[in-house]
User: Fold this.
Amino acid sequence: MNITFCDAQNYKKQIKRLYRDAFPRKERLPLSFLFLRSRSGRDIASLFQRIRSGREIASLFRRIRSEKEIASFKAILNNGVFLGLIYTIHADDKVCLYYFALEKGKRGYGFGSRILQMLEELYPGCSIVVLIENTEETDAENYKQRIGRLDFYRRMGYQQLHAVVCEAGVTYELLGTDSTITREDYLGLMRMFFGRVLYRILYRE
Assistant:
């Protein structure tokens, strides 16, 4: 096992296929948005406003590349072969594992555990939060799968934070490496990531 992370831009075809296979349509943000946001920490609504006005489009995108990143989009490789994808959102000492998926035939071999260990090494001293589909919805068609995800993260030391969020109509529960992480901590990250306009659309209280 020799796992490495590399720029998702270099594996767009594989990323696109896995992203569509691993996540239901209702849980998928546009890939173009994810790639763009992983290059910039600026308010995305402000960006779109500038583009609609037709002002300085070329220089605007050059500036995006130079700004502080709030997200990271990586392809996961094992011995140089594509294994999966990982998308994180981060600020200060908080990190959200927003998307994480492995190729279907590569699950159950210890890759997931090792990748989570690497994530903690990548963000030393940070609290990590992850969302899973709500396990209290016992009548869900994929309930066993939800419990399986919960058990996996528990084995890796994640704790149930006894908090839920509704994102674009889907209810998730929060897990974290630190029991002091709050729902507001998570929502604060999302406000920074989406910007004010998109945040209000996605997280209608």
